[in-house]
Amino acid sequence: MQYRHLGSSGLRVSAVAFGTWLTAGNTLDLAATQRLVASAAELGINFFDTADVYARGAAEEALGAALKGRPRHTLVVATKCFFPMSDDPNDKGLSRKHVVESLHGSLRRLGLDYVDLFQCHRSDPDTPLEETCRAMDDLIRQGKTLYWGVSLWSAEQIERAVQLCRAEGWAPPISNQPCYNLLDRGIEAAVMPRAAALGVGQIVYSPLAQGVLSGKYRRGAAPPPGSRATDERANRFIGRYLGDPGAVDRTERFVRLAAELGLAPSRIALAFCLRRPEVASVIVGATSAAQLEENAAAAALALDAATLRALDEIFPAP
Question: Whose CB among 100, 109, 172, 226 lies 3.0–4.6 Å from 165's, allowing a Cys bridge?
Fold first, then answer.
């Protein structure tokens, strides 16, 4: 496994991260989650990502139970807050009240004294940026989180947060968690370069486009039994790829290219994301040890210039 610094911080995370969105506490039971966490650790994965809103807290509970007993210094645990956890008007957003209470709730569900990374799951136009940044700095000073980051923030929003924190002497965010894959390359234009200049690294989710880039879905064929597209609990987001004829065409060309290279499509897709030094880690939502092993192997794959040119032809940069 390869380990990369997260932004300009001293924190090193595995290039492949274990994700819990749509899986832990949802499509996977506790026993399966425990087995996958054990497999992840054996593969050298030290980075585990979750959020309070994933399965309404059940993902954090499942991950916490699966991590129990493992040496804390070997783990990098990240969670997030922003989305409503109840109907209470203050139980959402990035106000000081919600940020602080959300982290307390996450720590309780995870069974931890602190998390390594606490992330703003979205930006909040209803809360002053100063309030959120100060709350994050206070939580770091209290030792309840070691670092903080953001998710799906624009280049301008990231820059404002970093500059504000530097001006006030507060701990700045070290990470951003955006969607990034061969079919979604939008962050290459502005987010990646500006964030890198500010010392903010990228932790990318959906690097396989909800599994579409694994090559398991074929035009005119029913989704394979047990795949994400057949599971109503996990297929809410895959439709935007499978329902786009252009995306389907490009993916089929990609699968043919992978066959010519003698490599699994998923391995190439993950290696494509990791080719960028701005990307610290790719988050995978594996549901089996075999998938996890295949995904972890991407960290060791360096794509040559000819392959990158072929990928750019199939999936043009923005």
Answer: 172
* C-alpha of 126 from chain center: 25
CB 56 within 8 A of CB 20: no
Q: Is 3 a catalytic residue?
A: no
* Closest to 49 measured CA to CA, from 101, 94, 96, 6: 6
Catalytic residue selected from 3, 54, 147, 217: 54
Using DSSP, state whether 89 is helix, strand or coil: coil
- 211: phi > 0 → left, psi -120 to 50 → alpha, else beta; which? left
SS3 at position 71: coil
103 in Cβ contact with 81 (< 8 Å): yes
Q: Which residue has the tokens 């496994």?
A: 1
Which backbone phi and psi does 116 adopt, to 5 degrees?
-80, -35
CB 301 within 8 A of CB 37: no
Angle between helix 155-168 and helix 129-141 axes, rounded to 10 deg: 60
Spatial distance between the Cα atoms of 298 and 284, rounded to a whole number of angstroms: 11
3-314 is classed in which CATH architecture?
Alpha-Beta Barrel (3.20)
Task: Write down the pTM of the prediction.
Answer: 0.91
